[in-house]
Amino acid sequence: MADSAKPVSRREGRKEAAVAADETQAVQLGELSDLLGYVLKRAQLKVFEDFLHCVAPLQLTPAQFSVLLLLDANPGRNQTEIANTLGILRPNFVSLLDSLESRDLCTRVRSANDRRSHILMLTEKGHAVLARAKKLVVSKHEARLNELLGPDGREALLAMLTKIAEEF
Amino acid sequence: MADSAKPVSRREGRKEAAVAADETQAVQLGELSDLLGYVLKRAQLKVFEDFLHCVAPLQLTPAQFSVLLLLDANPGRNQTEIANTLGILRPNFVSLLDSLESRDLCTRVRSANDRRSHILMLTEKGHAVLARAKKLVVSKHEARLNELLGPDGREALLAMLTKIAEEF
DNA sequence: TATTGTTATACTCTATAACTATA
DNA sequence: TATAGTTATAGAGTATAACAATA
């Protein structure tokens, strides 16, 4: 997303001649501002955009970061297990892993028990990058959210979103 | 989304032999369950999925519904204005509009003032379909969310997401 | 026969450049 | 020259089918 798709905020969209008096009417969101799915998607895009920006020094996408986090918390799992947990289809997980492995952040090792499966592990560099990424996420990304919503607000938001994700 | 990418919920992932005692360890989400962006995305997918299901009789996607809502609330606007407001790029808005217009839900009319621009309007059928869609959204989709979160919870969630979408 | 990782493929979203017709 | 709508195109993300190796 370069800059073009960013939605117009409430007081924009005027033509040159109308800037001073803000003459031209802004487009009304109307009932859209009460549609949870719409606002949810908008908020999600904003949060991902900020995540990307905060972790830019390490060149990690949200998806890549989530894989590293999961490998750290679950050493010795295979591709299917990790992909399923993240809701990523196995075929699509292959290239994601390829990119991480080519950067020496994780490795695939054929399992001794079941030689069909690949055991996934973080490399030393993977651990180091993950540690640095976590620091950036906490100190920059989540810190900004805390600032905007307050610690209580953030907790409440997380609880409601988790409820939707798990029970809806 | 057929069914494959659905994430494994907490107590799954065991091998056949282990089902009874739930022996095989579930993959641990770990810090992922505290990452707002992750939960936000998961919740958004769930909500869109439910929206699609609830409005299935009318064959409207969330994006198409948002366009119809906006045209209803802002008659006489052109493509650029509507697309910008929704955060849709003008080139991508063309085929979206084509599909709505081919179903006789809206029309493009060349503006008399500025013959470059297309004024957008809902057709009679467009108004009717939008009215029916609104009923389905309120009575099925948003009703389910209200049931899950409670009216106060829903309001609080909407307020926080709006804040993120506008100020983050 | 079933499963793991993989390839190939297709469809949707999103993004940019460039054309045309108007201004 | 600048803007509105459009075309073409390219890249992500996501989906399914099918194959080789292994169980």
From TrEMBL, chains A, B:
Pfam families: MarR_2
All residue ranges annotated as the HTH marR-type domain in the record: 29-166
SMART domains, sorted: HTH_MARR (SM00347)
Full protein name: Winged helix-turn-helix transcriptional regulator
Organism: Bradyrhizobium aeschynomenes
Lineage: Bacteria, Pseudomonadati, Pseudomonadota, Alphaproteobacteria, Hyphomicrobiales
